[in-house]
Amino acid sequence: MSDTLLEIDRLSVDYETARGDLKALRDISFDIRKGEIVGIVGESGCGKSTLISSILRLTAPNTRFRQGEVRFKGQDLLQLPKRKMRDLRGADISIVFQDPMQTHNPVLSIGRQMLDIQHRSNATKTEKWARAAQMLGAVGIPDPEARLDQFPHEFSGGMRQRIAIAMALMSEPDLLIADEPTTALDATLEVQIIERLHQLQQEFDCAILFISHHLGVIAELCDRVVVMYAGTVVESGDVREIFHDPKHPYTRRLIDCDPGHIKERARVLPTIPGEVPDLAKLPGGCIFRGRCYQAMPHCAKVPPLTKLKEGHHAACWLNHEETAQ
Ligand SMILES: Nc1ncnc2c1ncn2[C@@H]1O[C@H](COP(=O)(O)OP(=O)(O)OP(=O)(O)O)[C@@H](O)[C@H]1O
C-alpha cells in the first residue's frame, strides 16, 4: 500500500478580480507521506494561504480551480461532496492558525470548547472531560484538570497556541496543517512550540504541513521543504540538503535573509530587494528573473521544475542541462 497521504497534483488556482484573473497558484505539485513533516516557505503573497484554503476547500467566493487535483488518501478532495468535506475537516485533517484566538471562543471555558470538539464521540461527558485534560497535559499545560475551567484570556499567548494544537489533535488527525503557528510568538516560545510539535508528531504519528515564511523555523522541524515563489514551486527537497546546498537563487536569498537557528533571530533581518510580481499581469519567462542576481538571457523562457537528484527539484536554468556550465 502506498504511504502517500496527500498529493497536490498540478494544482492551478485563480482569483477573479476587477483587474482580470489573478494567478495565485500555478501548476503546484508535491506530496506528503504518512507521518512526514513538510514545510512550505515563501514570502508574503506567494500563495501559502491559497494553498491551505484549497486543500481544506475553504476558499473565497471569487476562487476558481483551473486545473489539478488534491488527493487525500487517494481521493480527490476537490470532487468530494460538501458534507463529506465538512466531516473530513477537523477529523482527518486539522488546522492550527497563526492567531490562536481564531480557534478559541472567548466566552466559553477551554474545557467546554474541548467537550464540544468531541461531539461526534460516543464517550460519556466524564470520559470526554478526562480526554480533554489528557490532551492539555500532552501539550504541556500544567495542572490540566483545574485549567479546563478557565477562559482563553486567562492563558498566555504561548499557552493559547499549545491549547489550539491540543484541540487540533483531539481527533487524532492523519494530517495537521500548521499555518504559521509560531509567527506571533517571541523566539523562546517559538522554540518551545516547535519542540512540542516534534514530540506530538511522534506521539500521534500524524503528518504535518507546516507553513512559514522563515526557512530557519522550517529547518528546525521539517523533513522536507517546498519553496514557493509567486504562486509556483521553485525548489523542493530534503530540508537539510536545501538549507546547505540551495539550487534556486530565490532559496539562496531566503537563507541569506534568515540564516539559521531561530534562537539567533533576535535582530532585524535583511529582506530580498524588489517585490513579488503582480499575479494579475504575470511577466513572461522565469517568474523570479526581475529580482534575480544571476539572471541571464535564457531566463526569458520559463524554466521547468527539474529533478536534480532523487527528491530534489529546482526550477532554474542555472541547474538545467541546456544551460548549466
Ligand atoms: N480572495 C482574493 N481575491 C483576490 N486576490 C486574492 C484573494 N486572496 C488572496 N489574493 C491574492 O493572491 C495572492 C496569494 O495570496 P496568499 O494569501 O495565498 O499568499 P500568502 O503567501 O499566504 O501570503 P501571506 O503570508 O501574506 O498570507 C496575493 O497576491 C494575494 O493578494
UniProtKB/TrEMBL annotation:
PROSITE patterns: ABC_TRANSPORTER_1, ABC_TRANSPORTER_2
Residue ranges annotated for the ABC transporter domain, each copy included: 6-255
Biological process annotations from GO: peptide transport; transmembrane transport
Transmembrane intervals: none
GO CC list: plasma membrane
Keywords associated with the record: ATP-binding, Cell membrane, Membrane, Nucleotide-binding, Transport
Membrane protein topology class: Peripheral membrane protein
Entry-linked SUPFAM superfamilies: P-loop containing nucleoside triphosphate hydrolases
InterPro entries the record matches: AAA+_ATPase, ABC_Ni/Peptide_Import, ABC_transporter-like_ATP-bd, ABC_transporter-like_CS, Oligopep_ABC_C, P-loop_NTPase
Domain of life: Bacteria
One Pfam family, short name: oligo_HPY
Compartments it resides in: Cell inner membrane
GO molecular function terms attached to this record: ATP binding; ATP hydrolysis activity
CDD domains: ABC_NikE_OppD_transporters
Family classification: Belongs to the ABC transporter superfamily.
NCBIfam families: oligo_HPY
Classification via PANTHER family: DIPEPTIDE TRANSPORT ATP-BINDING PROTEIN DPPD, OLIGOPEPTIDE TRANSPORT ATP-BINDING PROTEIN APPD
Name of protein: Peptide/nickel transport system ATP-binding protein
Organism: Cohaesibacter gelatinilyticus
